[in-house]
Amino acid sequence: xxxxxxxxxxxxxxxxxxxxxxxxxxxxxxxxxxxxxxxxxxxxxxxxxxxxxxxxxxxxxxxxxxxxxxxxxxxxxxxxxxxxxxxxxxxxxxxxxxxxxxxxxxxxxxxxxxxxxxxxxxxxxxxxxxxxxxxxx
Length: 137
Fold this sequence. Notes:
Layout: H1 8-24, H2 40-53, E1 65-68, E2 78-81, H3 89-106, H4 120-130
Antiparallel strand pairs: 1-2
């Protein structure tokens, strides 16, 4: 992910911190459970923050954050918090959509997936494929 312009500096700094923390562990670092490491969720949060800090339609003088909420059985909810530079409703909705479109599109590049609860239609499609039925178009 070092090739991502918005992540390069973050990853360099974090990797230095992680390497130093692991060196400080000495022999304890031989056990993987003791080692500090980077995560894709933390990297996504850093990317989301950097993206919005450089977005021309996001207010830079107000709070900007990406934070993990309490994990549950459906995954780890991520809260995206910022303010647009406009209060015009249609422009706000466009900006919000653009930000989420971009963040959702980058998920696979960071090794993450969006969770969506399966519906009855999802399960019926699986059942038909298991029975060898052709889907209706």
